[in-house]
Every structure is written in structure tokens, then in C-alpha cells.
């Protein structure tokens, strides 16, 4: 089975990864009721390694504000409409914030483990689809020249964030790996939108639902509204930017990292780039990736 991404519902609660046979761009069925809501219902079959189940994604759009809204009825679909706070609680219970010890391993081991996990800030939830590992004594790693004011976060304990400005334009999000003082991180290259599509599009200045929205590291940083001030932020604490547990992909692609021609041949050719096989949310070049 190949892990695909969920439909886009910018005002929805949280969604499950989509069945590979379902087109994420396909419009969902709209059911009208007697209340001041439209209810978008799409049945999604999910399958992850731990378990498989059928879930239902429901999107509520308020037309008019009311202090006493009428109860929603969709008996014709035989579905129960969850409240948003209940759905959020269910999502957080199923996908809790990862603890600090999750990150304190070699960056090359952490990188593929980040695939399928969720980045959350406010109403925006992204699922990680592509990453690159950067290790100690790596001629492509920012820590190769030692600790500086800019790279100090890379040498912090695993589980923190390292954000740097690339070409004066792009905010690049990295997850610090390994123990304090090691100097290793994993670059988040691409993600798929799970929630908060409207906010993502606004931050990106791009109204699209195509992979170009988030397929690239600078696009991820922009979609999350990050700046270099986020460096050293702890992903394992509630609030701000969080990293939540998520389904492990069945199949992974590997290849050499992108844009590191300045590094030694050994590191230029190292297969330290990882992506979810079958996902459309992968940055270029794709032809250098192959099954793990």
C-alpha cells in the first residue's frame, strides 16, 4: 500500500491520510440540511501499519452566525456529526506530541522516521512527505565549520528547531537531531496540507491545491509562517510549533540530497534524501529518487 495525502479542507477539523485510490483533488459530495450549515461528507478508507479502518471526513461551513443553532441531522447518511473540539481531542489522542527522546538519535535514522508525522501550528497541520539528513562531519551540513551565532541551534539537543534564511528569501525548517553538542539536523523538504488550507494559501500568496503549494523547503517554512526567531523552539512542548505522531509509510524513496554541489563527492552522492513513495507532494528533482 502507498501512503497518499488527504483532501483539502481549510476549515475542517483534522483529517486522516487518504486511500491511494481516491483522487485528493476530487470534489466531495455536498449534503444540505435544515440548519445554517453545509456538510461536506467524504468516506475515506485508510490503512497504516498499526491498523486499518474506515473513517469519515466531515466539513462544516457556517453560513450565518447564530447563538442557538439548530441541531444538525444527516440521518440519510446515517452519520454522527462530531463537534470540532471533540474531533481535535480525538486527533490529539491518536497523534500525540512526540517526546524529546524521539529525536535524540542519528539524523540518518531520524530522517525516515519523520515521514508521515504532522507539523502543527495554530490551524495549520502539515504532513511531512520529504526530508534530508545532515550529520556531523558532513561537508554539506551547516555545522561543518563549528558553532557560530547562526548555527548554534544545530548543536542543541534533538527535538528543537533550526530555521535559517536561504538566498535571503526562503525560511528553511530543520529538526535538530541527536544529543546536545553533536551538530546534526533533518531538513523538511516537502509536506502535504492536512488542515488550514486557507491560511497556507494566504501565507504563500498562492491560491492552489496543487503540490507546488508545499513541494519545496522554502514553501514549507512560508506556509507555517516561520522566521529565524523560531530557531531553538522545542517541538515537543505544547503551543507554537509542534510535531505530532503520524502513520508510518509503507514504502519510502531514497536519493542524493539537493543543491549541495559544494560538498565532497562522498556526501554529494550519499542517499540521505527520503520521501514517501507514491506521494505527489515531493519536490524536484524526482528522477533521482528510487525505492528503498
Automatic annotation (TrEMBL):
Its EC number is 3.2.2.21. Residues 47-59 have a biased composition (Low complexity). CDD domains: AAG. It comes from the Eukaryota. SUPFAM superfamilies: FMT C-terminal domain-like. Pfam families: Pur_DNA_glyco (PF02245). The keyword Chloroplast does not apply. The keyword DNA repair applies. GO terms for molecular function: alkylbase DNA N-glycosylase activity; DNA binding. GO terms for biological process: base-excision repair. Residues 1-21, 47-74 are annotated as: Disordered. HAMAP family: 3MGH (MF_00527). NCBIfam families: 3mg. Belongs to the DNA glycosylase MPG family. Hydrolysis of the deoxyribose N-glycosidic bond to excise 3-methyladenine, and 7-methylguanine from the damaged DNA polymer formed by alkylation lesions. This is DNA-3-methyladenine glycosylase II.
Amino acid at each position: 500500500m502507498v501512503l497518499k495525502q488527504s483532501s483539502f479542507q481549510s476549515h475542517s477539523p483534522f483529517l486522516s491520510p487518504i486511500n491511494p485510490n481516491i483522487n485528493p483533488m476530487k470534489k466531495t459530495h455536498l449534503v444540505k440540511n435544515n440548519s445554517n450549515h453545509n456538510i461536506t461528507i467524504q468516506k475515506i478508507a485508510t490503512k497504516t501499519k498499526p491498523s486499518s479502518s474506515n473513517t469519515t471526513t466531515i466539513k462544516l461551513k457556517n453560513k450565518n452566525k447564530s447563538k442557538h443553532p439548530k441541531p444538525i441531522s444527516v440521518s440519510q447518511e446515517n452519520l454522527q456529526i462530531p463537534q470540532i473540539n471533540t474531533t481535535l481531542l480525538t486527533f490529539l489522542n491518536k497523534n500525540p506530541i512526540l517526546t524529546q527522546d524521539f529525536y535524540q538519535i542519528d539524523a540518518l535514522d531520524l530522517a525516515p522516521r519523520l515521514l508521515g508525522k504532522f507539523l502543527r501550528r495554530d490551524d495549520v497541520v502539515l504532513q511531512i512527505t520529504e526530508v534530508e539528513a545532515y550529520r556531523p562531519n558532513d561537508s554539506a551540513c551547516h555545522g561543518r565549520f563549528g558553532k557560530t551565532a547562526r548555527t548554534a541551534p544545530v548543536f542543541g539537543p534533538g527535538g528543537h528547531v533550526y530555521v535559517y534564511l536561504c538566498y535571503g528569501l526562503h525560511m528553511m525548517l530543520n529538526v535538530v537531531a541527536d544529543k546536545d553538542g553533536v551538530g546534526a539536523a533533518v531538513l523538511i523538504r516537502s509536506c502535504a496540507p492536512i488542515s488550514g488550507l486557507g491560511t497556507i494559501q494566504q501565507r504563500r500568496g498562492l491560491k492552489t491545491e496543487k503540490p507546488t503549494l508545499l513541494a519545496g523547503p522554502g514553501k514549507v517554512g512560508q506556509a507555517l509562517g516561520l522566521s529565524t526567531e523560531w530557531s531553538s523552539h522545542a517541538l515537543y512542548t505544547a503551543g507554537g510549533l509542534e510535531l505530532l505522531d503520524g502513520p508510518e509509510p509503507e514504502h519510502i524513496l531514497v536519493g542524493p540530497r539537493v543543491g549541495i554541489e559544494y560538498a565532497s563527492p562522498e556526501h554529494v552522492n550519499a542517499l540521505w534524501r527520503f520521501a514517501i513513495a507514491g506521494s505527489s507532494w515531493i519536490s524536484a528533482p524526482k528522477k533521482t529518487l528510487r525505492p528503498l
